[in-house]
Design goal:
CATH class of the largest domain: Alpha Beta
Number of domains: 2
Oligomer: single chain
Strand content: 15-25%
CATH topology of the largest domain: Dihydrodipicolinate Reductase, domain 2
Number of strands: 15
Number of helices: 12
Structural class: alpha/beta
CATH architecture of the largest domain: 2-Layer Sandwich
Distance between the termini: 81 Å
Largest sheet: 9 strands, mixed
CATH superfamily of the largest domain: Dihydrodipicolinate Reductase, domain 2
């Protein structure tokens, strides 16, 4: 009996020292009838598509009705359709947009194709979820935004962290830090494609002709985190490590705000623990995960121990929350919500392009004017 009491006391003290806030057990929630808010068509067959389809499985409000792949990727499309019970497969994009029983298209293609395929889907009257980065430059993003608004359609950039409960909590906690003095965000992950790049094989992630590179592929999450919290900076500069074809394999973006600097590190040529620190005069917030995961937040104030840890995300997969949020906005016809997130996308596209151009990294889209 004494041992049990001592153990209970130990658990009580541990809980008081480090309070952990977590979501309710979803298995204890009442079973509700499935309500479909979005009939989704998938465009693409790459790795991000497999991730998206896995993330969509527990999202009850979204039903995947069709998938489109390029003709040479038909075997991959057939495998995806079979694995995820997708009823219709297309290799003709216009037929997919005209015939499939869908109201929304998810664009999971190479970066340089985002603009063209998003634009065509909008012209066919479909709502669109486009993977990050939204497009190759600010001009393309602005044109797509204006087209969606003109046609009264929904358009979203798939930036997972912005739709997580942990991000909402981060926004709520931020004022407790007082005046912000420093932000450090790091997302460094050795790319599975980097060894081939070193051997001379350039895959899309390292191809400037396809709008690749560390800034647009991985550091874009840091930019979304920083700009999502603090808005646009006064200025930005980018300091990359460039490979043999002029692409940035890693780099540091420095965003200057009134009263503080924000440093965004993104690397595909090396790895380190990823995370974020937001420092204020009254304390700091620490995120011990890559920004696209945002698994937990620790608040540390000068007058207290670091005792509040928040882990509020409901889904095990990092992409699930964004799909649920998009479906809810579509069902509610929440165009104000659409425009709120599009404003963040515009700001990120502007800063990303300015950062890229400051380092003399030019994409083909920078020279193109849409007819």
């Amino acid at each position: 009996m004494m041992l049990f009491c001592l153990y209970a006391l130990f658990i009580t003290l541990l809980t008081e020292r480090s309070r952990i806030f977590a979501p309710s057990n979803p298995n204890q929630l009442p079973i509700m009838k499935r309500m479909i808010y979005m009939n989704l068509g998938i465009a693409g067959s790459g790795g991000i598509v497999s991730e998206a389809l896995t993330a969509l499985e527990p999202v009850e409000s979204v039903q995947v009705k069709a998938i489109w792949v390029r003709p040479h990727s038909q075997p991959k499309g057939q495998a995806l359709a079979q694995d995820y019970d997708i009823p219709a497969l297309y290799t003709d994009y216009e037929a997919f947009l005209q015939q499939a029983d869908i109201d929304t298209v998810y664009i999971g293609l190479v970066n340089s194709a985002h603009y063209e395929y998003t634009r065509k889907a909008l012209l066919f009257g479909k709502n669109v979820i486009v993977e990050k980065p939204f497009a190759s430059n600010l001009r393309e993003v602005r044109e797509l935004l204006e087209l969606a608004q003109e046609k009264n359609l929904f358009l979203w950039e798939a930036v997972s962290l912005l739709h997580m409960p942990n991000f909402a909590k981060l926004q709520e906690l931020l004022p407790q830090l007082g005046t912000i003095r420093m932000v450090q965000a790091n997302y460094s992950q050795y790319s599975s494609r980097y060894d081939k790049y070193l051997a001379g094989t350039v895959l899309p992630a390292f191809d400037p002709q396809l709008s690749g590179g560390a800034l647009y592929d991985i550091n874009i999450y840091n930019l979304n985190l920083i700009i999502g919290l603090f808005g646009s900076p006064k200025s930005v500069s980018y300091h990359p490590t460039k490979g043999f074809n002029g692409i940035d394999t890693s780099g540091v973006a420095i965003l200057a705000y009134d009263g503080f600097q924000a440093i965004a590190v993104g690397a595909k040529d090396s790895a380190s623990p990823s995370g974020c620190l937001i420092q204020g005069e009254k304390g700091y917030i620490q995120i011990e995960s890559a920004p696209n995961e945002l698994t937990s937040i620790m608040l540390c104030l000068r007058k207290d121990d670091c005792k509040d840890v928040y882990a509020l995300n409901q889904y095990p997969h990092r992409l699930s929350h964004e799909f649920e949020a998009f479906a809810n906005m579509l069902q509610a016809q929440d165009f104000a919500g659409r425009d709120f997130y599009l404003d963040i996308s515009l700001k990120v596209a502007d800063i990303a392009e300015k950062a890229r151009r400051s380092a003399d990294i030019i994409f083909p889209a920078d020279h193109e004017i849409q007819q």
